[in-house]
């Protein structure tokens, strides 16, 4: 790649060696706002591009993988949600649908949308999505909201696929290590998007990145990737100082032209006005973080009835699509982390150039805690290529 910058010191560690990366920077999966273009741009640069495929049916996932592979020979991650729905979604009633539609109905009308009718939920099966990943062959599989069965993990391992599990608490990190994943993404409370917790309620799994990462590093032997609130080189350096061997950044990449976020969403991220974010269940039924706006505030009002995941997501989409067309960002789910206002991305290459240059410039600090803490183990792992 032309215009490669930066010293190598902070880039040679267990994460880059296990995943085959030049830089320990992961573009976090962005669910429905993922794009092949973004994934490919990050991977071609030498980071890890990821694609969040949980909302797609198996055949759509197959198409995405083939398209990404046609554009890069580098490693990229496909990401799924182990838990695809809240159990109560299967029994949720038309009456509940009407109650949750009620606060949105006036907005749908105001943007020229069509008021939706109740449709019974039709699940997409995680196991069917996994099957396509196995059939198509990928190099990295990342996941949130749980741990896949041993049988599924064994299938991936047989294919040599690197496994990244996401933890929002120390206990989740330990459970993921016991299940035999290769890398832990430790996701702090600041992060954009959903919380992904699976051992306790998301509301009880809200440790910030600064506190979570060193505790996870102490509790597991695997390489840890810090996620949540990292918006620039300073955040990357801080994550390494906490013992992380890589970072996963979502919001910073969401603002890039290559992402799947719409123009209003990107404008909000880059406006300099994205100063406040908040957690809500209102966008989808599961707890996630977005920029505070009228929609988020109204959905967070006490007494507002929210459907279980993913029924609320489908409902809000009936507002979001026409609201985007009508140019009304205050009625859009504007997903973002607490770092939203640090967003500067013009294009992915420029963002990565800046990150790599700046981190390399302050590289002394970056060599970090993990090398200091367990030099013998880290060296040993690198020599054997094993992470546990
Ligand atoms: C719009 C959006 C969608 C996301 N979707 C997923 C997803 O499907 N799977 C996942 O593991 N993480 C998902 N994340 C989390 C990111 O991959 C990443 O871990 C997180 O954004 C890091 O925090 P930051 O936003 O503060 O950088 C999403 C984040 C955002 C902002």
Give the CATH H-level superfamily of the largest domain.
Aldolase class I
Provide the gyration radius in Å. Answer: 20 Å
User: Any idea of the CATH topology of the largest domain?
Assistant: TIM Barrel
The count of strands amounts to 11
Q: Tell me the span between the first and last alpha carbons.
A: 32 Å
Q: What is the succession of H and E elements?
A: HEHEHEHHEHEHEEHEHEHHEEHHHHHH
Helical stretch count? 17
- What characterizes the major β-sheet? 8 strands, parallel
Total number of domains: 2
At CATH's second level, what is the architecture of the largest domain? Alpha-Beta Barrel
Name the poorly predicted regions: 1-7, 378-388
Structural class based on helices, strands and sheet pairing = alpha/beta
Name of the CATH first level of the largest domain: Alpha Beta
Enumerate the strands of the largest sheet in spatial order, edge to edge or round the barrel: 1-9-8-6-5-4-3-2
Report on this model:
The chain contains 17 helices and eleven strands. It is an alpha/beta fold. An eight-stranded parallel beta sheet has the order 1-9-8-6-5-4-3-2. It has a three-stranded antiparallel beta sheet with strand order 7-11-10, with no helix packed on it. It folds into two domains: 9-85 and 123-258 and 347-384, TIM Barrel, CATH 3.20.20.70; 87-121 and 272-339, no CATH class. 42% of the residues lie in helices and 12% in strands. Bound molecules: flavin mononucleotide. Flavin mononucleotide binds at residues 28-31, 33, 52, 54, 79, 142, 144, 166, 187, 190-193, 196, 227-230, 248-252, 254, 335, 337, 339.
